[in-house]
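Contributing: when you submit paired examples, paste them exactly as shown. First protein:
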Amino acid sequence: MAEHAYIKLIPGSTLEVVQLDDIKELFHYYKTITEKTGVQLDWNYSENAFPYEIIDYKADADYIHLKATEDRYHSIFLGVGKEQVKDSEGLAALQHYIELILPELSTYGDKGKANEFSKFLAKKLKGELHLFNKRVMQYNLKK
C-alpha cells in the first residue's frame, strides 16, 4: 500500500501556490548545496544525497517521478494539489499542498530520503509538514 506525506502551504508560507516547476527548482538548489558540501568534504556527496533522476510523469494528474539511480532506492512521486479548508474566521479558503507518495515497491532508503526531502521543502516554503507517520511539523513562524 502506498504511503503519503503532505506539505501544506498555510498563511505565512513563502508561496501561496506551488507548481511542479517550483519543486524542480528547489531540488536543483538542493543538488547545488550538496555539491558544495561534497567539495568541502572532498567526497562526491551530491550523488549520495540525491540518488534520483527527475522525470516528469503524467497519468490522470501531473507528478514528478524521482527514479532511483542507486540499488538501494526505487522511486518517489511528488505532486501538487489544492483543497478547501476553513480559515481562522471560519470562511472557506483554498489551500495548496505538495504530496509525496511512496509506491509499494519503495524501499526503506526511499522513505528516509522522502522524509529528508519533505523536511527540506517544508523548511524552504515555510509550510506545515504532515509526515508519513501522521505527525505534523510546523516550519512557519507564527506571530
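Second protein:
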Amino acid sequence: MTTIQAVSYPIHFENKAYEELALLLDQKQYSSIFILVDDNTMRCCYPRFMQLLQTTLPMEVLQIDAGEVHKNIDTCIGLWNAMTELGADRKSVLITLGGGVITDLGGFVASTFKRGIDFINIPTTLLSMVDASVGGKTGIDLGVLKNQIGVFANPELIVIDPEFLHTLDPREIRSGSAEIIKYGMTHDQQLFQEITANPEVNIIDLIHRSISIKNEVVLEDPKERGLRKVLNWGHTIGHGVESYFLESPAKENLTHGEAIAIGMICETYLSAKLLEFPTDMVSVVKERLIAIFGKASIEEADLPAIYELMKHDKKNVGGTINFVLLNDIETFKIDCNVPEELILESIRYYAS
C-alpha cells in the first residue's frame, strides 16, 4: 500500500511504516520515548511492536485500563503526573499504540504536556486505522458526552499495520466497518456496495481507500469549518444513542460502530423525508446495516434522553441540532435543520 501524505505528516503502511518510524526517531533526536498502551494492546500488540521498533532511545511504557469510560480528564492527569515523574521533557515523544481511545486521549495528552510534545499514532483497531488516528483531532469525553474536550493537533507520523487486526474479535472489526460504510455512503458508492453487500469482503483491502477519502476531506477543511462536517454523517444521532447506552445501567454498552450504524439508518430516513434520497434505498440501508451490526433495543421511553444528549453535539450552533444529510449516495448537504418530532420519528423507524 502506498504512503498517503496528510497536511503535515505521512501515513505509512505495513513494513515500510516501521522503516520510516526508525528514520524519524533518528532524525528528530528525541530525548526519550513514552509508549501509551491499554491492557489489551499491552498484551496483544506491544510484543509485535517492540520486535519491529528500531531504536536505542530510552523508553517508558504508560499503561491505562481499556475502555471508553477511561477516556477522561482523570486519566490525563494520571498520565501527565507519570510522565513528569519519569522525566519527560519537551524533546520526548509519545507513541500511542491502541484503538481510538488511546489515539484520541494520547494525542491530547501529548499536545498539552509542556504546551505540546510530538506524538506518533500507531492504531491497532480497524476503527482507529480508518478514522480516529487520522485527521488531527485529539480529545476526551466529558462525562458521557463524546469528545467534548480536545484540540486539533497533528502527529508526526502514522503507522498502519494491518497485522494488528488479527488481535481483534469480530465485534471490533464490525465496529470499525461502520466508518468505512460512512465513507462509502458519502463519497464512494462502490465502497458502500463492497462492504455491505459482500460478506466475504477482505476488510484490509478497504483500509487504504477509506483513509484516502478522509484525508482528502481533511486537507480541504482541517478545522471542520465546512466540508469536514460530512465526516459526521450518522454521528449526530449515533453519538446520542452511544452516550445514552453508556450512561444507562439497564442497557448494554454499544461499540462506537454499532451506535453509528443506528445513526446512519436514522439519518438515511431523515434524508428521504427532507431531501431527495431515494425512498426505496432507505429500507436497503436499514436491512444491510442491521444484518451486519444486529439491532439494539430502543424503546419509546428512551427517546427523550437520547434527544437531550444530541443537544451537546459539537456541530450544534445556538441550540440548533445540525445534521449532515444525503440527497443520494455520494451527494450530501451539511448544516441541515431537522424538527424534533422528525428526529424522534427516525429513531422509531429504526426501532420498528
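If you have annotations for the second protein, write them as plain sentences, like these:
Residues 256-274 form the longest helix (19 residues).
DSSP finds 14 helices and eleven strands in the chain.
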